Amino acid sequence: MSKTILVVDDSASVRQVVTIALRGAGYEVLAATDGQDALRQLDGRRVHLIVSDVNMPNMDGITLVGEVKKLPAYKFTPIIMLTTESQEEKKRQAQAAGAKAWVTKPFQPAQMLAAVQKLIAP
Fold it and tell me: Response regulatory domain spans which residues (predicted)?
């Protein structure tokens, strides 16, 4: 059975690129436009990994990480931050909130898939 990944990014083109790369590697993909949309999709269904942008409207990625960690069903779900942010302070905040990896945009799909595969096998 394939693993499910939730992709959270306010950019439709980024969601599309990430979705194509993940589906190509055999993953199921759910997509959300921001943190609030992502939380609505975490409705009890099995999500093995979350890939999230940092800077988004309504709820940013670091806040999302903190909110996901409060949900018993998703507390241990690994989260990769995929972002244009390269500030060490943001990285520290994300790690403190519980993010497991940090991939900087523009990214190579292979680089992102390597991070995904380290956290969950396909």
Answer: 4-120
- pTM more than 0.85: yes
Residue 49: strand pairing partners: 5
* Count: domains in the chain: 1
pLDDT per position as a tens digit, 12-25 = 999 999 999 999 99
Looking at residue 49, its amino acid is L
User: Rounded to whole angstroms, how far apart are CA atoms 31 and 16?
Assistant: 9
99, with CB counted inside 10 A (0-12, 13-18, 19+), is: buried
For residue 98, what are its two tokens?
């519980």
Amino acid at 30: L
Query: Phi then psi for 54, rounded to 5 degrees?
Result: -95, -55
CATH of the domain at 61: 3.40.50.2300
Question: Would you state the torsion angle of the CA atoms of residues 48, 99, 42, 14, taken in this order, to the nearest 10 degrees?
Answer: -90
